[in-house]
User: What shape does this take?
Amino acid sequence: MECLAELETRTESIELKQLRNEEQTNSEEARIVEMQRKLKDFDNRQRRNNLCVLGKPEDVEGTDPQVFIVQLFKTAFPELAD
Assistant: This one.
């Protein structure tokens, strides 16, 4: 009988550990999902300030994007030039 009681106690202990591990895993998975959501939001907010010029290749602005944009607007809208 003692063996059976000890076996039941060990089984219950293992089941409790498994339950705690499952709860911790679920908690960690929820944290990962939330962190992925925040990362995606951060990435989208960072891109929000970027200007996309259609019809121009990537990195055509060179080292000074501000000068490139001014020149682009002067070319596209000559009536706005100084």
Summary: The chain has a mean pLDDT of 88. The two ends are 99 Å apart (CA to CA). The first helix runs from residue 2 to 48.
